[in-house]
Amino acid sequence: MDIATVAGFVLAIGALLGTVLMEGGDPASYASPSAALIILGGTFAATFVSFPLERVLSLPRLIAKALFAPKRDTAATIDQLVKLVERARQQGLLSLEQAAQELHDPFLRRGVMMVVDGFQPELVRAVLENEIAALEERHKSGYGMLEAMGGFSPTMGIIGTVLGLVTVLSHLDNPSELGHSIATAFIATLMGVSLANLVWLPLAGKLKLRSKEEVAGRELILEGLAALQAGENPRIVRQKLEAYLAPKAKGAVAKAAPAGAADKVASARAA
Asked: What does the alpha-carbon distance between residue 32 and residue 247 come to, in Å, rounded to a whole number?
């Protein structure tokens, strides 16, 4: 589970409740079923109109992906690629056919098999770049829907407030209830803005970040495969691929390099 996402939601709820209590309010008074109905019902209705049914039904999966996305180990991927390069230089490209079957990453496995099958470097790059572009489009459709919901919710909140004010103005014969009724009407706006800025838009931002990380990981693999096909020196390959690592991660790789492993030591110095 992504601790940052969960902590953010908890902090947001705590900040809202804390503000209400500090102002002397009653949190229970902010619970408005009618406001929740117009905001959630209206937001999902607009989403159904704007997007295909199968995409809207994928919302639980998108939320789960934001909360439970697996951690990517870029350093381990670099190690895999360098080992493949070393094996290819020692035993030839055909020796990678068996090694490819042991790879867990489908993208990497397909790329290695294309190299083993003798595809031209330009074709390998074109096919894998098209796959990356398609991946980006699929991801964009997911977090794009959440961004749209983040735009719908505040608008539905305003609609709920207007509906509430219309009801209030139609009952001006009871001035003692006027203040309470107006306050209740504005809860819809508060709820809509809060839902957009504390749920939908942050989830969209997290999925966008996940997408960038996955694309960067596949671009790293693409560069590694190009180096594999070109028969480059493993040490040079490691130096090129470690450009994708953060400075702290480069330092950790350098410290983990065993004594006598010239490739890793040289790459750590270059970083």
From this structure: 49
Residue type at 242 in one-letter notation? E
Cα–Cα distance measured from residue 47 to residue 44, given in angstroms and rounded to the nearest whole number? 5
53 CA to centre of own chain? 22
Name which of 259, 244, 198 is nearest 78 in CA terms. Answer: 244
Other Cβ atoms within 10 Å of 179 Cβ, number = 10
Question: What's the rounded Cα separation, in Å, for the pair 201 and 149?
Answer: 8
Cα angle for residues 238, 239, 241 (degrees, 5° grid):
65
pLDDT tens per residue, range 85-106: 999 988 888 889 888 888 889 9
Q: Are 116 and 100 in contact (CB under 8 A)?
A: yes
For residue 160, give the nearest of 142, 184, 195 by alpha carbon: 184
| Residue 30 clears pLDDT 90, i.e. is over it | no
Backbone phi and psi for residue 205, each to the nearest 5 degrees, phi listed first: -65, -40
Single pTM value for the model: 0.81
d(CA 50, CA 33): 25
Residue 250 pLDDT: 65
Cα-atom radius of gyration of the chain, to the nearest Å? Answer: 27
Token duo for residue 23:
């102002």
Q: Pinpoint the alpha helices (H) of the chain.
A: 3-22, 33-50, 53-56, 59-68, 74-91, 96-101, 106-116, 121-169, 178-195, 201-230, 234-241, 247-256, 262-270
